[in-house]
Amino acid sequence: MPIPPEVTGEEIDPDVRQELMSLPKGLAEDVSRNLVMVAQLIDEDPEKAYGYSRVALRLASRVAAVREAAGFAAYATQKYSEALAEFRAARRMSGGVELWPVMADCERGLGRPERALAMAGEAEVQKLDKAGQVEMRLVAAGARRDLGQLDAAIVTLQSPELASSAVHPWTARLRYAYADALLAAGREREAREWFAKALEADKDGATDASDRLAEMDGVEFVDAFDDTDEEPDVVVDVEDDLDDDEDDDLDEDDSDDSVGDKS
What we know:
This protein has helices at residues 14-20, 25-41, 46-59, 64-76, 80-94, 100-109, 113-120, 130-146, 150-157, 160-163, 171-184, 188-201, 209-216, 238-262. The chain is built from 14 helices and no strands. It is globular. The longest helix has 25 residues, at 238-262. Residues 231-242 and 249-263 have low confidence and may be disordered. Helix 3 (46-59) runs antiparallel to helix 4. The protein is mostly helical.
């Protein structure tokens, strides 16, 4: 797959570059450039990102960072079975637990919420950092909702992190998930409060909390550039136009006659 010449591979995360040092220099450069493309495209064009990840995987399947990138690209395209296999391989190679929450979410994607809940109760969760533990809580709450256990999902999200007024990268998503669960349970007043709190913490636009609030308030946004909007009606009186044309022709004829008379 073509890679723009301005992508050198130097843009890659230093830890990943360190992993790639085990490869021959030329190969490491090729792999890093493909990984940069995965990172750049995974949000806006996940299918194309997936294609670059497969190239990197063919070149260096024994590098944990490559398997992890391939996993996230598959996850972004909802290829959950493939993503789970790649995450497991990356975890075996690295020995870390950082991928545990997304692995559990793959189980949800495969229609196995019970397995995701089982993973939420395993010892690996205690080894996660705070962000990872919050992510695991979000996955567990999602699994509860998959099973129709709305009240349990709400309780799962209730935590010191949710109650804290401090804002972290995961705060908006945690508050949003809580608001959404409350709304699903019919607790609209509380849901509105927590959507507002999510919006307050959402500096990067990670959620659509503002849209959800507007929807609850009955506000409807109209796109001024919507192609489906009707153009303003313009009424043209064809007969009047024809009459005007005929009058113009008569005026021209009269003018010609008068000129002839003068000569």
